[in-house]
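$ fold --in a.seq
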Amino acid sequence: MVKQCHVIGGFVALFLLSFSAISYGQQSEPKATQNLTKEIRHQLVLLPYYSVFDNLSYRTEGSKVILGGQVVRASLKADAEAAAKSVEGVSSVQNDIEVLPPAPMDDQIRRAVFRAIYSEPSLSRYAASAVPSIHIIVKGGHVTLVGVAENGTDKNIAGVRANGVPNVFSVDNQLIVNTDGR
């Protein structure tokens, strides 16, 4: 059985993942599985309250979908589960999405990190899509950057900019660098 894990980011990540899914196990997957993962990704990216401050991921085990990541709104967790269940061919959904606790300081940090990253001239192009490809997850003053950067320099600049924001305790830069040139 093929197990896959996919990270849903902005348009750039959607584009990249539609051509090169992050796979664990076999490299080639059956056409039905490809279509299933493509449709799940499509449904999750279309969620109305999915933003740069959320991180949605999923993996498939046959026709079972396991959702993961972190969201700011509890309603987004439920919406993601409903969206995955609506995909033809999905038999069950395990929803392991973490709802981040409400915290005014974390909200301030989110906005400050957003400004620090997307106001940097070399990174401003990432803000052009409806959901930017660099996602900012904040929990208890700790920042995690997830998504896709076009190159290692952009990844490093984003990490440095996030680390320079006041009241940030740590930055975990998990950005994936697009190495295939797409």
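$ fold --in b.seq
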Amino acid sequence: MSKVPTNLKYTSDHEWLNAEDKNCCIIGITDHAQDSLGDVTFVELPEVGKTFSKGDVFGVVESVKAASDLFMPVGGQIQEINENLTDSPENLNQNPYGDGWLVKVKPDSENDLDNLLNPEQYKQAIG
């Protein structure tokens, strides 16, 4: 069974978002996503300062099994990227909710946060 931390919000595309700081949310992929991908070999992330709308593709994760687009769970501007993933993409597999985070984003609207899945809804989605 995949880990689904209770302090995060989720998308049906298997991204998670930590909204504890509503001015700078952390985004990553879920344990379920990394498990489905297999061993991650490459991560492509956007430039800091780039702006995305909710649902936009903001990067790519490549693994031994497939390449998968990353979808922005909220509209906003990229504040920081996890540069460690360039040299250590395996962090996505080893610790998707910790060292494997992808980007930090300043959301355009708190309304986007309200439309994400809670942990129970996400568990049902991957059920």
